[in-house]
């Protein structure tokens, strides 16, 4: 199979208003019930926080995964390499690198070789190049620590810094660590205005670094505010995004997967319901979308 479907536990972590919550074991059972053989686990509460998983708990989870014949394809970390940088003296890069090392130790104990991470949010009042430099330093430290545990870091195009694919590729080259790869998703370039040939070209350009991708599909709802003095509505940026089952939204997935094929990508493709979902956050509705993803992915091979 060209693609390995992965269910991301954030979908059942109550991350969005109205979404149901399953604990880790219930989520694993749910994944098996839905037909998944691979999962990605949120590496924070309410799922697999390193604060809660001592050596015994790690062994128990590893055993449970084996009993259920489930691959733990990745742990999903939540870094922000510029957090606190607006305050002099805060070692943002070092703090995040230490957090990444803790997650790498957890990942190794659970026998997965992949950890998803983010870049950093842009801080007002701090020079862009200062923030960029802190990000490069932090990623370099983190990647070297990860290498000690045999972990590949999957950098997702999510946070402010280097969120455009051109900047992201520049960043990877500047850091220059072989175990720093891309978790490259379609919805970010879509929100930056890319579709069709432009989106396909972006995927091909990023292709040599892509080691993971997560599918999430959305519809865009413009926002307006009523202005009674002119009996009219004023457009309010930004628009609101609502999640829908994959292939039913506005993200140009035909172009994105064409780019993946052009780039020769084969591997894990995760699914997440990481926004308010059409139909609500009941278990039944989450399950319907998760089942639909398996069909959707089969159409891309």
Short characterization:
With 301 residues, the protein is an alpha/beta fold. Helices cover 39% and strands 22% of the residues. It has helices spanning 24-34, 55-67, 92-109, 128-148, 165-175, 187-191, 196-206, 253-263, 283-298, and strands at 3-8, 38-42, 71-76, 114-117, 152-156, 180-183, 210-215, 217-227, 232-244, 267-271.
Description:
The protein is an alpha/beta fold. It contains nine helices and ten strands. The strands form two sheets. It has an eight-stranded parallel β-barrel, surrounded by four helices. Helix 3 links the parallel strand 3 and strand 4. Helix 3 (92-109) packs parallel to helix 4. It starts with a strand and ends with a helix. The mean pLDDT is 97.
Radius of gyration: 20 Å
Helicity range of the residues?
25-40%
SSE topology string = EHEHEHEHEHEHHEEEHEH
β-strand percent reads: 15-25%
- What is the spatial order of strands in the main beta sheet? 1-2-3-4-5-6-7-10
Mean pLDDT: 97
Per DSSP, the total helix count is 9
Q: Uncertain regions: pLDDT < 50 for 5+ in a row? A: none
Main beta-sheet strand count, sense and barrel state: 8 strands, parallel, barrel
Let me know the number of strands.
10
Query: What is the molecular shape?
Result: globular
Structural class: alpha/beta
Distance between the termini: 8 Å
Lay out the secondary structure.
Blueprint (H helix, E strand, L loop, with lengths): L2 E6 L15 H11 L3 E5 L12 H13 L3 E6 L15 H18 L4 E4 L10 H21 L3 E5 L8 H11 L4 E4 L3 H5 L4 H11 L3 E6 L1 E11 L4 E13 L8 H11 L3 E5 L11 H16 L3
Parallel strand pairs: 1-2, 1-10, 2-3, 3-4, 4-5, 5-6, 6-7, 7-10
Antiparallel strand pairs: 8-9
């Amino acid at each position: 199979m060209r693609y390995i479907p992965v269910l991301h536990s954030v979908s059942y972590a109550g991350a969005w208003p109205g979404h149901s919550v399953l604990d880790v074991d219930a989520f694993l059972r749910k994944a098996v019930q839905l037909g998944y053989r691979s999962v990605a686990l949120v590496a924070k509460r309410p799922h697999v926080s390193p604060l809660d998983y001592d050596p015994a708990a790690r062994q128990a989870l590893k055993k449970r995964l084996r009993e259920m014949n489930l691959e733990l394809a990745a742990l999903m970390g939540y870094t922000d390499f510029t957090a606190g940088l607006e305050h002099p003296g805060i070692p943002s890069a070092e703090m995040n690198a230490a957090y990444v090392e803790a997650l790498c130790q957890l990942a190794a104990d659970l026998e997965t070789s992949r950890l998803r991470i983010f870049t950093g949010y842009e801080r007002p009042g701090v020079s862009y190049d200062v923030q960029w430099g802190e990000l490069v330093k932090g990623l370099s430290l983190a990647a070297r620590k990860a290498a000690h545990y045999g972990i590949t870091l999957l950098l997702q195009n999510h946070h402010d810094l280097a969120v455009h694919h051109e900047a992201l590729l520049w960043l990877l080259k500047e850091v220059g660590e072989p175990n720093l790869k891309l978790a490259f998703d379609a919805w970010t370039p879509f929100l930056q205005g890319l579709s069709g040939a432009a989106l396909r070209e972006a995927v091909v350009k990023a292709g040599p670094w892509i080691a993971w991708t997560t599918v999430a599909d959305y519809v865009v709802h413009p926002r307006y505010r009523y202005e009674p003095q002119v009996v009219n509505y004023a457009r309010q940026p930004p628009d609101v995004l609502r999640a829908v089952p994959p292939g039913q939204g506005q993200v140009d997935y035909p172009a994105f997967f064409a780019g993946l094929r052009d780039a020769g990508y084969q591997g894990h493709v995760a699914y997440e319901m990481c926004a308010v979902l059409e139909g609500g956050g009941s278990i039944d509705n989450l399950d319907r979308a998760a089942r639909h993803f398996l069909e959707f992915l089969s159409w891309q091979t």
